Amino acid sequence: GAGVSQTPSNKVTEKGKYVELRCDPISGHTALYWYRQSLGQGPEFLIYFQGTGAADDSGLPNDRFFAVRPEGSVSTLKIQRTERGDSAVYLCASSPRQGSGYTFGSGTRLTVV
Amino acid sequence: GQQLNQSPQSMFIQEGEDVSMNCTSSSIFNTWLWYKQDPGEGPVLLIALYKAGELTSNGRLTAQFGITRKDSFLNISASIPSDVGIYFCAGIGTSYGKLTFGQGTILTVHP
After folding, report:
1. B73 interface with A at CB cutoff 8 Å
2. What is the full DSSP assignment across B7-32?
3. What is the residue-level pLDDT of chain B in tens, covering all 111 positions?
4. To probe the interface with A, which of B29, B44, B86, B99 has the most A CB atoms within 10 Å?
């Protein structure tokens, strides 16, 4: 597609539930990134993929968070046993190669109640 | 997580005025980027800087990569109402895929 597409745009879930957030990158972009943005803050790095592999997952806050990109295109961010503190906007970005030409999606607003 | 120190946090200016904001870090970055974010959208790249000392313009925007590689500034000249939004600096260090963002500067332009 023309841009980075993230679905759903909004997700409300109950504490303790499992959620999946999807990112469709720009076609042909080999690098894909996940960031989390809390209210009034800049985005914080979670993980990035070069192709199918996670090149840097140092930003994942704990083992409840996991991300996959099995075919080197679409990526899914998975959060288990959600907590209220997980509420944030989750942003995905892609680029033709790592470190340059980032394009961000509009994000998924996750609310844990 | 680590964030860059961005200032000011917010600015209220009149249309036509010039604006300046900056970012500092205790760490060296190899690339500095400036983004603008509108409500409900992801950040959009304004300017990218790749070399220490580099000064780059994009229309009414000018940004510089500090010579120490630990700071950058963004200037907006002759502001207009559509400049309203949140501006973020971001740096790339040794992990090429990882952006570290500042806390943002909220810009309000009064017509």
Report:
1. no
2. E-SEEEEETT--EEEEEE-SS--SEE
3. 556 899 999 999 999 999 999 999 999 999 999 999 999 999 999 999 999 999 999 999 999 999 999 999 999 999 999 999 999 999 998 887 889 999 999 999 998
4. B99
